[in-house]
Design a protein that fits this description.
The chain contains 10 helices and no strands. It is mainly alpha-helical and about 230 residues long. The protein is elongated, with a radius of gyration of 25 Å.
């Protein structure tokens, strides 16, 4: 029974398992170095290496925070997202918003602390990992899809408040995740059914053209047969 319940949410189960796995591995002797090499992103890394590690960085929890809270959040939010958004959209939102935060960190370090969204150089060496940005983004998209405007507003207010009270990398990345999620949610609402309709129209036109060509071919064969018979 328990196995069937977890099997109903494969994406949420896989994400939760990966977070637990990385949490265990990085606390083993030599494990932190291994995890750093495959899933830890820092703004100081070359861009191509950061992009390569970003998919796994989503599942690498912070070293100094309890992992159980992250496991519960990820499983609940990812499971709801699988039902409400679908698995493909859940992955798109999670990775797109995580990547947006990763790129924002690089831009913030590049422009420096003299700007509103800039960071000092030492931030480039901070571990930029974890599922929090993905969880926040999915919560926004779920609320948008289900028209839970109060929940969406509450998440936005909490994330902006966090960034104001604690203006660190994580707080600002959460705000970036919120903005990215809102852009995705609005785009899906406006253009979400455009390409499916186009593809459906193309499919219908192809079917009609196929049937018409078969009818023309049959008629041509009939005429050819009639011309041959004396």
């Amino acid at each position: 029974m328990v196995r069937k319940k977890f099997a109903a949410f494969p994406l949420a189960t896989a994400a939760t398992f990966l977070i637990l796995l990385f949490s265990v591995v990085q606390h083993l002797p030599g494990g932190e170095r291994f995890v750093n090499h495959i899933g830890v992103v820092r703004a100081a890394l070359p861009l191509d290496l950061s992009l390569l590690r970003t998919p796994l960085s989503l599942y690498v929890p912070a070293l100094d925070l309890p992992v159980w809270g992250a496991l519960a959040q990820v499983f609940v939010v990812f499971a709801i997202a699988e039902v409400v958004l679908g698995r493909r959209m859940t992955l798109v939102v999670a990775y797109a918003c995580t990547l947006a935060g990763t790129l924002f960190a690089r831009v913030g370090v590049a422009i420096g602390p003299g700007h509103l969204f800039g960071f000092p150089k030492w931030v480039a060496y901070v571990r930029d990992t974890g599922p929090s940005a993905a969880v926040v983004a999915l919560a926004i998209c779920i609320a948008f899809r289900t028209r839970a405007w109060f929940t969406a507003s509450l998440v936005v207010v909490l994330m902006v408040g966090e960034a104001v009270v604690l203006p660190n990398l994580a707080g600002l990345e959460h705000v970036v995740a919120v903005i990215t999620a809102l852009l995705i949610a609005v785009s899906v609402e406006v253009f979400g059914d455009f390409w499916p309709r186009v593809l459906a129209g193309v499919g219908a036109a192809t079917s009609v053209a196929t049937v018409a060509s078969l009818e023309v071919a049959k008629e041509a064969r009939r005429r050819s047969a009639g011309a041959v018979i004396p």
